[in-house]
UniProtKB/TrEMBL annotation:
GO molecular function: DNA-binding transcription factor activity; transcription cis-regulatory region binding
InterPro entries xrefs: Homeodomain-like_sf, HTH-type_TetR-like_transc_reg, HTH_TetR
Pfam families registered for this protein in UniProt: TetR_N (PF00440)
Domain HTH tetR-type residue range list: 8-68
Native species: Tessaracoccus bendigoensis DSM 12906
The protein's name: Transcriptional regulator, TetR family
Keyword annotations: DNA-binding, Transcription, Transcription regulation
Lineage top rank: taxon: Bacteria
UniProt DNA-binding residue ranges: 31-50
């Protein structure tokens, strides 16, 4: 193994363990000892790389959201393809990140030491907003406030995950979102000439 790749592997293992434990135990129930054990590293390694638990939590959340934005949000001029890629990527991220989303929305913003991680979520929302605004400028999507468009597009994806499917039908498979159908429903009434 290349010695240069070891720190990234260790770093990634720590970030993945952090997200997994946040999802399982929430912010307060996640300890650096548990993160170290799950990542297969010494607890001192966590403090050397990240400084504090809260800095680690911020980094874990921010890196996951940044990864999603890079992989799933892009303007190509094909509104259906771009929004389908966005919805598919967002749903996949939430399926993996799901339980963590509950912590990010219910615990992290209220802890002064981890609240800056919400900025990464805000950045993702702004990136999605920019994509929609570009299509509005192109005349492909009718003008509508972004404050209603983003929730209309992403809300049906995030709601079941954040609520743990508690508000959904008993059969979760019956609620599974089909990205292409969702995008077409989103665009219906918003698409020019639609």
């Amino acid at each position: 193994m290349n010695p240069g790749s070891q720190p990234e592997t260790t770093r990634e293992a720590i970030l993945v363990a952090t997200l997994e434990l946040l999802g399982a135990h929430g912010l307060r129930g996640t300890t650096t000892r548990a993160i170290a054990d799950l990542a297969g590293v010494n607890e001192v390694t966590i403090f050397r790389k990240f400084g504090t638990k809260h800095a680690l939590v911020r980094e874990a959340i921010s890196s996951k959201l940044a990864e999603f934005a890079v992989e799933s949000v892009a303007y190509t001029g094909d509104v259906e393809a771009d929004l389908t890629r966005l919805v598919t990527g967002y749903e996949a991220m939430l399926e993996e990140f799901g339980p963590v989303a509950r912590s990010v929305l219910t615990e992290v913003p209220f802890d002064d030491r981890t609240a800056p991680a919400v900025e990464a979520l805000r950045a993702v929302v702004l990136t999605v907003s920019d994509l929609l605004v570009n299509y509005q400028k192109d005349g492909v999507i009718r003008p509508e406030p972004i404050s209603t468009m983003v929730p209309a597009l992403l809300g049906p994806i995030v709601m079941p995950v954040v609520t743990g499917y508690a508000l959904m039908p008993q059969d979760q498979e019956a609620y599974r979102l089909d990205a292409e159908t969702h995008v077409k429903r989103f665009l219906y009434g918003r698409a020019v000439g639609g």
